[in-house]
Amino acid sequence: xxxxxxxxxxxxxxxxxxxxxxxxxxxxxxxxxxxxxxxxxxxxxxxxxxxxxxxxxxxxxxxxxxxxxxxxxxxxxxxxxxxxxxxxxxxxxxxxxxxxxxxxxxxxxxxxxxxxxxxxxxxxxxxxxxxxxxxxxxxxxxxxxxxxxxxxxxxxxxxxxxxxxxxxxxxxxxxxxxxxxxxxxxxxxxxxxxxxxxxxxxxxxxxxxxxxxxxxxxxxxxxxxxxxxxxx
Length: 232
Description:
2 domains; Rossmann fold; 11 helices; five-stranded parallel sheet; single chain; Arc Repressor Mutant, subunit A
């Protein structure tokens, strides 16, 4: 049975729909979002409930969909939800990482794919990135998507690596692990503002559009930890 929550008074918080999963799991997600810049304004047992029963609620900026683990169903849910709320961005949470499910859902327009065991900090960070237009998913799936993390035998890749400073390579490594600027600064012992400057330079040298694409480039070039499950 689907249900709708009342809209909160703080209009500055990004409205979020929680869709799928058990009542207990959604309650946990709702608790994660309390006190953050995101506000749960709608909660639905199934994606069909969400598509058919959200009248009177504000349109969501973000949708968090809890996958059943069935690839076709997940892809169909993403397609239906984004068809109904075409200005929203969607994050899918799954109980197991699947390259096939990731690929199917990205093709339908999902902007994130993560394990449903995600921490509160990682969830809110991922939602913030998605709201800014980035795509997030575990870096080990990036390796699988990009050919198993094998180094590309491409002279263009080698030339671009040669153009990077030692510090920029360090930061690229951090990006492939999904670290935020503040975390990178702590690891490398530099100010967050300095990290931002290096990231901007790195993006320019690699010829990519954002940090997510830089991280994927790094994965394809063989930089990064294959075992990392951090968000991009």
